[in-house]
Amino acid sequence: MKKIILGGLATTLLAAPAFAQLSDGSSGQESTANVGAIGLYGSEYFGSADEEFTALPFLDVDNYKGFDFFGTTLSYRVLETGTGEGLGKWSLRAGPSLTYLPGRNSSDSDTLTGLEDVDGSLLAGGYIRTTIGPVGFRLDGGQDVINGSDGFTAIASVGTSLPLGKLNFRPSASAYYGSGSFNEAFFGITPEQSAASGLAENDVGSGIYSYSVNLVGYYPIAEKWRVNFVGSYRWFTEEADDSPIITAVDGSDNGLFVGLGLTRQFNLP
Predict the structure, then answer these.
(1) d(CA 176, CA 205)
(2) Cα–Cα distance between 134 and 159 in angstroms, integer?
(3) Of 215, 238, 239, 245, which sits most exposed with the smallest number of CB within 10 A?
(4) pLDDT at residue number 1
(5) Does 183 score more than 90 pLDDT?
(6) What's the rounded Cα separation, in Å, for the pair 89 and 136?
(7) Beta partners for 169?
(8) Domains in the chain, CATH or no CATH each
(9) Is the distance from CB of 129 to CB of 116 less than 8 angstroms?
(10) Rounded to an integer, what distance in angstroms lies between the CA atom of residue 44 and that of residue 4?
(11) Looking at residue 56, what is its pLDDT?
């Protein structure tokens, strides 16, 4: 189930907006990496009522020669300007990005039997991120270029940073958009798939397929060492909510994803 849980991590961290990464972001110029492991618990696939636990290595790189790596997203800072982050300040950052989004196997559930596997997608696109005082906004988008979903997806998020002593919370809310190909891959049922699976046909178009509220944060426990946590509660809507995959006995129109890990921070040259 590692592929499926990694998908939960990918979508959760991609949704976390302007204050997502685990570095403190105080200067915007320091290069750091957080390396460790994280335990993850979440839905087995988009729309599943069943959850699974797994453990994975974790890497977060902040501003190494302009590159950032977080979750399963590699991005580059082409534009970076502003007066900083925090009260009375503003910032703007934008650039290209690559995100790996895992797919889904028909063997993941009896409900999916007869449906085609959805291979992993490599989303080639970009992002724009801005902070105005304590509030951050971010828009990510990408087109699959390796014949996974063959679709385009975008995430719009708003969030903030809430330091409580050593504890740093970064809550956000997000909306997820999928093209017709993307939504069809995960929520549609073609006539051929209907005949093979017994599920009703479901023709899905483009549109917003889910919303979520997210939480990313950390707590330092020693010099360079941190406990990190991520979490997301998602509910499906509009294009996805009526899918037979979601309305099945083992389906759900909402889902919870949580993760807890331990990392060590390194300064990069």
Answers:
(1) 14
(2) 9
(3) 238
(4) 45
(5) yes
(6) 11
(7) 162, 217
(8) 2-267 (2.40.230)
(9) no
(10) 6
(11) 84
